[in-house]
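Journal club prep — side note

Before the paper discussion, L.F. wants everyone to see what a predicted structure for a comparable chain looks like in token form. Sequence:
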Amino acid sequence: MPALWIAHVTVTDADAYGKYAELAGPAIAKHGGTFVARGGRFVQLEGKERPRNVVARFPSVDAAVDCYHSPEYQEALSHARGASERELMVVETSE
């Protein structure tokens, strides 16, 4: 079943995070991920607000988790650490 990769982010270092974004997109695409939302308008109804929200669709939970652990994504993530505060989850869809 398809899955959604959902990230809520507060960027604290735009330059370093820009490098993350540059590398993360191709890593996500390599694992079958496509972006559904990248930033954009949002309304926070509950919980901690993060100004950047990203949703990517993957073919499965396993594909999303494999992407996260891949060398390509981990290289991208090395630029986000210390440059952002993030929450990331993968949720299987009901499709």
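L.F.'s comment for the group: The longest strand covers residues 3-11. Keep this in mind when we get to the figures.
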